[in-house]
Hints:
Layout: E1 11-16, E2 21-30, E3 40-49, H1 51-72
Antiparallel strand pairs: 1-2, 2-3
Amino acid sequence: MPGFVSLYTNDTQIHTTPWDIRLIFGEIAEGPTKERPSVRIKATGEVRMWPQHAKRIVAILLKQFQQYESKYGPIPKVGDD
């Protein structure tokens, strides 16, 4: 498919305005060290959408999580909210 992009992410930042929601995806490039207690993230892409579209995606994801967990068991919580 021309123009199709596949990304892996283990870090997501979310920014909102009255007009859109922005998801910025990235990968952890370096873990924390003694000198630098935070991780370094390499941004890999972003998706912008209307809040109405984002809300619909949330509903779909919640349904998918329920189906996944009923089949495979609970998804463990990782990291901070």
